[in-house]
């Protein structure tokens, strides 16, 4: 599903970036990426989901390759950002979930289904600024899944969650994996 060969990247105007790396990850697999602050974890996720292009090397997501096919890769890879405030765009939970569905010309039913799956149904009309940290994380995860990606990337998904929130997110991750999501 994911194949990375001799990937490297430098942020423009700096010496910071990623050295050469090679790895692969099969379909339905779960991988934890750990490293120190500034080690390139978020940069790697941005490259894998097509938000940035490699400085060298190649990324393959299924049959799509980067550099060159980043826009198409973004249709197959969901990303949950570290900061929910960057990802949540709707004024209410329902509006946020339906933004992605409408953009891809999918029915509203998919938004309602994900709200039910992630315990957001009763929050459908709630303004997003009134959500707790855990509710915002669940909304971001549901929003990333609304288009039916084959790969889900999460940048520091446990950040800011209390222990019950961490346990809940872990259950959601396991459930997604059981459904074949990489």
Report on the structure:
- This protein has 182 residues and is an alpha+beta fold.
- Helix content is 36%, strand content 19%.
- It has 7 helices and 6 strands; from the N terminus they run ββαββαβααααβα.
- The protein has helices spanning 41-48, 70-74, 84-87, 93-103, 109-117, 133-145, 163-178; strands at 2-10, 17-25, 56-61, 64-66, 77-80, 151-154.
- It has a 4-stranded antiparallel beta sheet with strand order 2-1-3-4. Strands 5-6 form a two-stranded parallel ribbon.
- Strand 1 and strand 2 (17-25) form a beta hairpin.
- Helix 4 crosses helix 5 (109-117), helix 4 runs parallel beside helix 6 and helix 5 crosses helix 6 (133-145).
- The longest helix has 16 residues, at 163-178.
- The chain is globular, with a radius of gyration of 17 Å.
- It starts with a strand and ends with a helix.
- The model has no long low-confidence stretch (mean pLDDT 88).
Question: Would you spell out the secondary-structure blueprint of this structure?
Answer:
Elements: E1 2-10, E2 17-25, H1 41-48, E3 56-61, E4 64-66, H2 70-74, E5 77-80, H3 84-87, H4 93-103, H5 109-117, H6 133-145, E6 151-154, H7 163-178
Parallel strand pairs: 5-6
Antiparallel strand pairs: 1-2, 1-3, 3-4
């Amino acid at each position: 599903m994911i194949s990375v060969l001799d990937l490297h990247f430098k942020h423009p105007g700096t010496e910071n970036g990623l050295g050469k790396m090679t790895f692969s990850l099969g379909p339905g697999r779960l991988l934890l990426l750990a490293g120190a602050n500034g080690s390139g974890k978020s940069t790697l996720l941005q490259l894998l989901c097509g938000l940035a292009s490699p400085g060298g090397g190649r990324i393959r997501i299924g049959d799509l390759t980067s550099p060159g096919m980043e826009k198409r890769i973004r249709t197959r890879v969901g990303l949950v950002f570290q900061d929910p405030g960057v990802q949540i765009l709707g004024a209410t939970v329902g509006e946020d979930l339906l933004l992605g569905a409408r953009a891809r010309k999918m029915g509203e039913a998919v938004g309602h289904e994900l709200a039910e799956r992630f315990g957001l149904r009763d929050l459908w009309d709630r303004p997003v600024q009134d959500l707790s940290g855990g509710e915002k994380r669940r909304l971001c995860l549901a929003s990333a899944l609304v288009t039916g990606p084959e790969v889900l990337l999460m940048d520091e998904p446990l950040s800011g969650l209390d222990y019950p929130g961490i346990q809940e997110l872990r259950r959601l991750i396991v459930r997604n994996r059981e459904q074949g999501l990489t």
